[in-house]
Amino acid sequence: AEMAAARLSGTENRLVSLPLSRIRVIMKSSPEVSSINQDALFLTAKATELFVQYLATYSYKHGRGKEKNALTYTDLSHTAEECETFQFLADILPKKILASKYLKMLEKEKRDGEVREDNEGEEEEDEDKA
């Protein structure tokens, strides 16, 4: 009843900071979604908002941002890399690296890949010992 009252009075939008229309568009972009219940839309928006707040707060507290009194991209990417809860975001929030460093990494991966093909059996034994 409380949710219906909020919807009728138009206060629902004030209970979430994220724009419900944008959330609806994102939800509808999924092929499995045909219609969106108003309560489901509101709860998705609120859950997303709380998740973003948690990610930002955690990243701020555990990052270098505290020293600068600012939340940085580096803080967010560090959280995605180091904290198990947020590791699913690692692809979305990758560590920033210089292009030259990235090219060197690609070269190394290519070389390592060629080496692995030559002695695959030996590599696996080494991993078991570690």
UniProtKB/TrEMBL annotation:
Q: Does the keyword Coiled coil apply?
A: yes
In this chain, composition skew of type Acidic residues spans 119-130
InterPro entries, alphabetized:
CBFA_NFYB_domain, Histone-fold, Transcr_DNA_Rep_Reg
GO terms (BP aspect): chromatin remodeling; DNA-templated DNA replication
Q: Which GO terms describe its cellular component?
A: CHRAC
Q: Where in the cell is it found?
A: Nucleus
Please provide the record's keywords in A-Z order.
Acetylation, Coiled coil, DNA-binding, Nucleotidyltransferase, Nucleus, Phosphoprotein, Transferase
Q: Where is this region: Disordered?
A: 109-130
Domain Transcription factor CBF/NF-Y/archaeal histone, chain residue ranges per copy: 17-78
Q: Name one GO molecular function term.
A: nucleotidyltransferase activity
Which Pfam families does UniProt cross-reference here? CBFD_NFYB_HMF (PF00808)
User: Main site of residence?
Assistant: nucleus
Composition-biased stretches, type Basic and acidic residues, lie in 109-118
Give the multimer and partner information. Heterodimer with POLE3; binds to DNA. Component of the CHRAC ISWI chromatin remodeling complex at least composed of SMARCA5/SNF2H, BAZ1A/ACF1, CHRAC1 and POLE3; the complex preferentially binds DNA through the CHRAC1-POLE3 heterodimer and possesses ATP-dependent nucleosome-remodeling activity. Within the complex, the heterodimer with POLE3 interacts with SMARCA5/SNF2H; the interaction is direct and enhances nucleosome sliding activity by the SMARCA5/SNF2H and BAZ1A/ACF1 interaction. Within the complex, the heterodimer with POLE3 interacts with BAZ1A/ACF1; the interactions are direct.
Relate the protein's function as given in its record: Forms a complex with DNA polymerase epsilon subunit POLE3 and binds naked DNA, which is then incorporated into chromatin, aided by the nucleosome remodeling activity of ISWI/SNF2H and ACF1. Does not enhance nucleosome sliding activity of the ACF-5 ISWI chromatin remodeling complex.
Protein's name in the database: Chromatin accessibility complex protein 1
> What organism is the protein native to?
Brachypodius melanocephalos (black-headed bulbul)
